[in-house]
């Protein structure tokens, strides 16, 4: 049987990752770097295990440099950006099987996979409950309810969560629009006003497209709410209210697993608060939409 070129062997899953070319280039370039870039290089080279867990903002602060300088250095050594560098670092520091899921071993049977994946999801929910600020949740619910229109932004792995938030907000009778395309997000944000509020969902808080949309919306006068993972990130600089999740996703991969579960729980809590604040109007809207949706079933 011919193995797919994309499918890793069990030996590859259990073995060490390939050499980290970007880090080797960084080490080679370090002597000739200007002061700010040299400080960033030192943080990355000497604190690799810590950098895997840090945001671009945190690395910039530790190095006494700007976020733009961190991203520029990443690109100079061949990475597409800081997130790409973190993924390469994680691959070098961990076993490849962890790119599938943090807790898996190559020999795990389906029943073990099931238990580990479910346990990770439950842990993400418990950790998120511990860090989610009830006062911030209340402020976010109030801010969104007061808006004449709500714009929901999410891209990539966050897009399905944004779609869920969009539908849930519609069901409680609010004027809400969804933008999961970067161009549409930019257009929507540029046309925002003080009567508009935005809800941005981004696990890393470092996605260029959603940062840009949130920044443009705020500059146009909109109030901004973001759902992002715990820790400092560029997105938070453009937020009026931050709702934190706590998931380990960033360390090993870009695909959403536990972070998605945590984000959905925060969305559920946020919209439940908004529905309670809406009182009879929200209940009436839910009843109307339930009656309409009932027509879709046999």
TrEMBL record:
The keyword Transferase does not apply. Residues 20-96 form the HTH rpiR-type domain. PROSITE patterns: HTH_RPIR (PS51071), SIS (PS51464). Residues 140-280 form the SIS domain. SUPFAM superfamilies: Homeodomain-like, SIS domain. Gene3D superfamilies: Glucose-6-phosphate isomerase like protein, domain 1, Winged helix-like DNA-binding domain superfamily/Winged helix DNA-binding domain. Keywords: DNA-binding, Transcription, Transcription regulation. This is MurR/RpiR family transcriptional regulator. It comes from Plastoroseomonas hellenica.
């Amino acid at each position: 049987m011919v193995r797919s070129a994309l499918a890793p062997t069990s030996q590859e899953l259990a073995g060490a990752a390939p050499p980290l070319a970007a880090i080797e280039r960084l080490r080679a370039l370090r002597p000739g770097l200007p002061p700010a870039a040299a400080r960033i290089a030192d943080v990355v080279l000497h604190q690799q295990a810590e950098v895997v867990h840090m945001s671009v903002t945190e690395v910039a602060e530790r190095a006494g440099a700007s976020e733009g300088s961190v991203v520029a250095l990443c690109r100079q050594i061949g990475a597409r950006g800081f997130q790409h560098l973190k993924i390469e670092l994680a691959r070098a520091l961990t076993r490849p099987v962890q790119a599938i899921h943090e807790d898996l071993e190559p020999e795990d049977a389906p029943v073990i996979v099931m238990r580990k994946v479910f346990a990770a999801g439950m842990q993400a929910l418990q950790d998120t409950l511990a860090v989610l600020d009830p006062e911030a949740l209340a402020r976010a619910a109030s801010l969104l309810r007061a808006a004449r229109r709500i714009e929901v932004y999410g891209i990539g792995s966050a897009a399905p969560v944004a779609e869920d938030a969009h539908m849930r907000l519609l069901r409680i009778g609010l004027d809400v629009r969804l933008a999961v395309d970067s161009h549409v997000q930019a257009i929507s944000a540029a046309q925002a006003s003080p009567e508009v509020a935005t809800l941005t969902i981004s696990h890393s808080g470092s996605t260029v497209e959603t940062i840009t949309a949130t920044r443009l919306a705020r500059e146009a006068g909109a109030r901004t709410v973001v759902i992002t993972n715990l820790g400092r990130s560029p997105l938070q600089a453009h937020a009026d209210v931050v709702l934190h999740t706590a998931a380990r996703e960033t360390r090993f991969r870009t695909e959403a697993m536990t972070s998605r579960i945590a984000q959905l729980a925060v969305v559920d809590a946020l919209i439940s608060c908004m529905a309670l604040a809406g009182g009879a109007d929200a209940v009436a809207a839910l009843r109307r939409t339930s009656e309409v949706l009932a027509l879709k079933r046999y």
